[in-house]
Structures are given as structure tokens and as C-alpha cells.
Amino acid sequence: MKKIVALCAATLALGTFATVGLAATGEELFKQHCAACHPDGGNIVNPKETLKGIKDTKMIVKKIRAGGGGMTAFDKKAIADKDAKAIANYIVKTFK
């Protein structure tokens, strides 16, 4: 479990550097920051808690900021507010 979380964190860190200075879509940001642990809206750490069916973008942004349950917390330096909102909108639209 610790190896999975470490791998996700490393993948997310690499994705953060890829977006510096570039405007990215919610899909691109999701792929860079989230897809390693949430492929196809799933959850490799806790398979019972997927992204499917979530409709509350504010709750998603709050979870991005707070982390927990094996998820890394992302502050505003790691993921800007506009990018967190873009990720949340992508999740709601994609994983119905």
C-alpha cells in the first residue's frame, strides 16, 4: 500500500512540473495529477471509493486540497484554484 501511494505521489509530482506555464484542460490536468491513482475514474488505493457518480465540484476541490484516505493533499501551489476547478468539472462530466 505504501509503495502504491509513493508511486502515485511521484507520478503526481512529475505531472506538476509538466504544467508549469501552460494552460491545460481539465482532462490534461486529471491525467497529470489524478489518473495514476484514479484510472478511468476508479481508485487503486480504495476500489470502493471511485469518482463515478460524483456531482459536487466544490466537494471534489475540497478533497483535492485536504487529501486523506491514502490521497495526497494538493495545496494551491501544487494545483492552482482554476486548475482544481477544471479537474472537478472534468470528473463530474466524464465519470457519470
Describe the secondary structure blueprint for this structure.
Blueprint: H1 2-18, H2 26-33, H3 57-66, H4 81-94
Helix pairs in contact: 1-2, 2-4, 3-4
Fold and architecture overview:
The protein is mainly alpha-helical. The chain has one domain: Orthogonal Bundle (Cytochrome Bc1 Complex, Chain D, domain 2), CATH 1.10.760. It is 51% helix and 0% strand. The chain has helices spanning 2-18, 26-33, 57-66, 81-94. Helix 1 (2-18) packs across helix 2 (26-33) and helix 2 packs across helix 4. It starts with a helix and ends with a helix. The model has no long low-confidence stretch (mean pLDDT 86).
Number of helices: 4
**CATH homologous superfamily annotation:** Cytochrome c-like domain
Strand fraction equals under 5%
Mean pLDDT: 86
pLDDT under 50 segments (min length 5)? none
- Please tell me what the overall shape is: globular
For the record, give the distance between the C-alpha atoms at the N and C termini, rounded to a whole number. 28 Å
- Which structural class should the secondary elements be placed in? mainly alpha
- Succession of helices and strands: HHHH
**CATH architectural label:** Orthogonal Bundle
CATH class: Mainly Alpha
Instruction: Count up the domains.
Output: 1
CATH topology description: Cytochrome Bc1 Complex, Chain D, domain 2
Topology, number of strands: 0
The biggest beta sheet reads:
none
How large, in whole angstroms, is the Cα Rg? 12 Å
**Percentage of residues in helical conformation:** 40-55%
